[in-house]
Amino acid sequence: MQVAVIRVLRVIGFRFRATLGRRWGGLLAIVLLVGLVGGLAIGAVAGARRTQSSFPGYLTHVNAGNAGIITAFDEPGVSNVPYDAAVIARIARLPLVKQVTDFTIVDPDITPLGLHELHLSSGESPPNIGGSFDGQFSTVDRVTLMSGRLADPRRANEVVMDAVAAHEFGVHVGSILPVGFYTNNQQSPGLQPAPGTKLPPPHLKVDLDVVGIVVFHTQVIEDDVDRLADTWVLLTPALMRELVPCCAFVTETTMTVDGGNRNAAAVEAEIVRAVPKLKAFDGGGGGGSASMTAVEEAKAERAIEPESIALGVFGAIAALAVLLIVGQLIGRQLRFGAEERAVLRSLGASPAMTVGDGLLGIFGAVVAGALLAGAVAVAISPLTPLGPVRHVEHSGIAFDWTVLGLGFATVVVVLSAAAVVIAYRQVPHRVAAHRLGARTRGSRAGRAAANAGLPASTVTGIRFALEPGAGANAVPVRSAIVGAVLALVVLTSTVTFGTSLRTLVSRPALYGWNWNYQLLSGFAGQEDLPAHQVETLFDHDPSVSAWTGVYFAVADIDGRGVPIIGATPNAPVAPPLLSGHGLDAPDEVVLGASTLTSLHKHVGDTVQVRAGPTKTTTLHIVGTVTLPAIGPSGSHTTMGTGAIVDYQLIPANRRNQQQSAIAGPQAILIRVRTGTNPTVALRSLQQITNTLNKSPDGPVSGVVGVLRPAEIVNYRSMGTTSALLGAALAFGAVAALALTLIASVRRRRRELALLKTLGFTRRQLAAVVAWQSTIAVTVGVVIGVPVGIVIGRSLWDLFAAQIHVVPDPTVPALTIALITVGALALANLVAAIPGLQAARTHTALLLHAE
User: Fold this and answer.
1) pLDDT for res 691
2) Which segments of 654-697 are extended strands (E)?
3) 330-334 long-range contacts, CB within 8 A, separation 24+
4) If you write DSSP's letter for every residue of 732-794 in order, what string do you get?
5) What is d(CA 826, CA 607) in angstroms, rounded to the nearest whole number?
């Protein structure tokens, strides 16, 4: 047995050396195709994984805290201790808490610039000014430097800030920002100067040197509503040591929790038990936000997922293309030696020898190509990750050994197995049997075309497209047709999905914004609007067709903290429904779809709801909605997360957290009349804003347009991804079709010479190849386009359900029609060179063969 194996290997090795000079070109083509297209496939899959994991990796890189809680707050009647070192130290001693840092905001309401001189857009709040002297934003939640440098912690006059804060202050790196800090006593009600009067001297005046622009990790993937208030000016520890004793406003403590996000909520509950007074800082809600990074990661996953899926699909298509095209090359290489194998067989070669003839070179080419593919995948890795993390993370070479290993193994195993199967089918006695069986085969379509009296070139082209031929003249027509079908299925489904995505992005009602404008109270919706005055103004505004006042809060629903919108039952303006019905009675609740799932409830069930230090109320779940991104920054609703309840379930002190004399909603949802000029509507709403701001409290922050969730913000950048996918797919399909046509012309030279002898002109011979190409693509269009539309719509429905938006798949009829026409035109274009070769076929080939 061993001797026989050695003999087989010797013969195979001899044949490889003897034929390498004639086959090296084909083997090199295999190496290059596997290496380049396979590397693209492996790199795309690795890039998809890198993109999907980019934000969790970024959070790890900046050492993001797991949980946060307000530990001190300067609020009359609740607390007058804006910084409490004893509470922070007590938290640090808890068993699951690994690291504790705090960030203290100094009251930013008064500066020498004056708030009215800030460059604030409608709805924006002034920047938060503060800092830490125990590592917040330097060791925990580290900021990412975008330009300039980080501030020296020992210098009180240096400062960094984010880009939005820099814009609002009108400064840049190198600017000097004069800031006056006032004590808490100077900021007390009754001691502040009236609007328009001269400011008193500040307690401390500092000319801050802007040395850097930074990004906070909460700003990387952010809803538009967060951008209204999530702007920061970061002071140095040296300055904070001077400001905390006199001028602090609120302190939030961030913790790194042992066990990560799964223990964050438990730690926060333990903190509230250990320091009961912290409950008062958030109306009984615990004063903080547990599992902060878990919330960020969930949002990031929803925002990034379409891009990572697109990359993965791109990789799968590229992998199919390389397997299809290289499979044809392998088959062609093995068929070239058919006659020599027949001679070997007649000289006594064993079946193992004839099967192995030519495989050694192919195996070597496949392995070399797979190694090249790995190198290509690594080389293109700096192009990823895609998405919002890329601009804050310095991407570089990445080695995803899992994908590289699996990709190498898949390429080698699949193509080697394909080569063995093809070689086995090319054994001389099987080839002879196949030729006998193939002589009587023919396509029904070819016979029907002939019976219909179609031109001879058309009939021959149809036959060439659908009949593979036999023996040395066999052509892989089936793979060409399957490739065309697959290409059009994926291309059509891709454009259907991409068009549906663009429809979602362009129609805010599909992701919860079921109105035109929102009027926000001061500080991005954290104050109150005068209810009676608001009702009078909006009811008499001719441009407004309907409006609804809403409140924002965080409620405990079956033990979970959920952002809620407080509204009036049967409100004329409300988010769009996904199931059930809207809020019709005070004992009902409408939930976001993901909130419903996380509570393990169904429409028709009941939940226990408590908003602040009040008794628990039983509410009936009557429907689900896709919720807009509205509410206070960091605790707002968004698409699938949140709930709508009767506003009276929110305690009065929670509806008026700023304790202003005005009692009313925190925001107004406004729907303008159909056909109203947007300029006229905005001018009218601005007049309402000016009227409301004549109040001494100046309660209005401004009128804002659509506030998009982070997912929608990121989806807008995906247009190039689908275009790249379609271009690569089209290239793969064209390459496969071109190779098939060239192979067909070469294999059928004798048939073409015979046709020329029988009177076919050069134009008719070129037409044969054109018809062959057209028929292959036509089959792809007839099957692939309808199937692609169905798949695209189904994928969109699944995706819409996953991100909890209104499902509205859009079929781009014009685009699909252009794809169809373009595919047929491209088929004829691709056939031009093979057609020219066919037209130049010499009849001497046939005479020589005869």
Assistant:
1) 87
2) 667-672
3) 330/30, 330/362, 330/415, 330/418, 330/419, 330/422, 331/422, 331/476, 332/26, 332/743, 333/23, 333/26, 333/27, 333/30, 333/358, 333/361, 333/362, 334/358, 334/362, 334/419, 334/422, 334/423, 334/426
4) HHHHHHHHHHHHHHHHTHHHHHHHHHTT--HHHHHHHHHHHHHHHHHHHHHHHHHHHHHHHHH
5) 60
* Total-model pTM: 0.77
The predicted structure's pLDDT at residue 126: 82
Would you call 549 helix, strand, or coil by DSSP?
strand
Specify the pLDDT at position 642: 92
- Residue 256 three-state SS: strand
Contact yes or no for 796/306 (Cβ under 8 A): no
Q: Are 533 and 521 in contact (CB under 8 A)?
A: no
Q: What type of residue is 644?
A: I
Q: What is the pLDDT of residue 21?
A: 63
Q: How many helices (H) and strands (E) does the chain have?
A: 28, 21
Cα angle 154-157-162, degrees, rounded to a multiple of 5 = 100
The Cα-based distances of 596 to 560, 570, 587, 625 in angstroms read 11, 21, 17, 10
DSSP structural state of residue 716: G
Terminal Cα distance for the chain, rounded: 44
- Report CA-CA distances (Å) from 159 to 129, 150, 177, 220, 497: 10, 8, 9, 21, 46
Q: What is the pLDDT of residue 550?
A: 94
For residue 198, the model assigns a pLDDT of 62
C-alpha closest to that of 496 among 286, 797, 782: 797
Is-contact 617 588, C-beta < 8 A? no
Given a contact cutoff of 8 angstroms between Cβ atoms, the answer to whether 771 and 465 are in contact is yes
Cα–Cα dist 123/527, whole Å: 12
Cis peptide before 385 (omega within 30 of 0): yes
> What tokens appear for 835 in the block?
């057609």
Q: Mark the ranges of the chain whose per-residue pLDDT is less than 70.
A: 1-23, 75-80, 107-117, 186-199, 276-295, 335-358, 425-443, 445-447, 449-453, 465, 467-480, 483, 634, 658-660, 695-698, 716-750, 752-754, 756-757, 833-850
Contacts of 362 (CB under 8 A, 6+ apart): 27, 30, 330, 333, 334, 416, 419
**Of 123, 5, 426, 85, whose CA–CA distance to 245 is shortest?**
85
Question: Which pLDDT value is given to residue 712?
Answer: 85
Query: Can you give 625-646 as a three-state secondary structure string?
Result: ECECCCCCCCCCCEECECEEEE
CA distance 552 to 550: 7
